[in-house]
Amino acid sequence: VQLVEAGGGSVQGGGSLRLSCVVSGYTYSSYCMGWFRQAPGKERGGVAAIDSDGSTKYADSVKGRFTISKDNAKDTLYLDMSTLQPEDTATYYCATAPSLICYGLDTDDFVSWGQGTQVTVSS
User: Fold this and answer.
1) Among 29, 48, 57, 106, which is disulfide-ready with 68 (CB 3.0 to 4.6 Å)?
2) Which pLDDT belongs to residue 29?
3) Beta carbons of 112 and 23 less than 8 angstroms apart
């Protein structure tokens, strides 16, 4: 399984970005997938996840601002981020879990990871 993120960059506070994650090596749409982030000096934490049937989960800190989605035809996972804040600055990772349902946003539930893409939000 290979996951490749793209779409990171620098943006001013209040701005928007769209991250993408192309998956190859298995039928990703059949499994739970998620986005995580890690800021310098902090542990990696869950941002959003999407089940095989499209049901979604979000961290409280991003609810109403971020949207996770997927395009099965393109084997691509997305994270649309709006109203970005400096505290959203982090390296963002996509990941897959060996289950149809996303039980939560615990990093321990996810087994395959991308290399990460940096998001920097200035005030």
Assistant:
1) 48
2) 60
3) no
Contact 44, 107 (CB under 8 A): yes
Contact residues for 62 (Cβ-Cβ < 8 A; gap 6+): 47, 48, 81, 88
Measure the CA–CA gap between 68 and 18, rounded to whole angstroms: 10
Give dist(CA 82, CA 74) in Å, integer.
23
Residue 95: the pLDDT is 96
Q: Where are the alpha helices (DSSP H) in 1-123?
A: none
Contacts of 53 (CB under 8 A, 6+ apart): 100
Q: Which amino acid is at 65?
A: R
HSE, CB side, 13 Å, CA atoms: give it for residue 113: 16
What pLDDT, on a 0 to 100 scale, did the predictor assign at position 120? 98
Q: So what's the pLDDT on residue 30?
A: 74
Dihedral pair phi/psi, residue 49, rounded to 5°: -145, 155
For the chain, which residues score pLDDT lower than 70?
A: 27-29
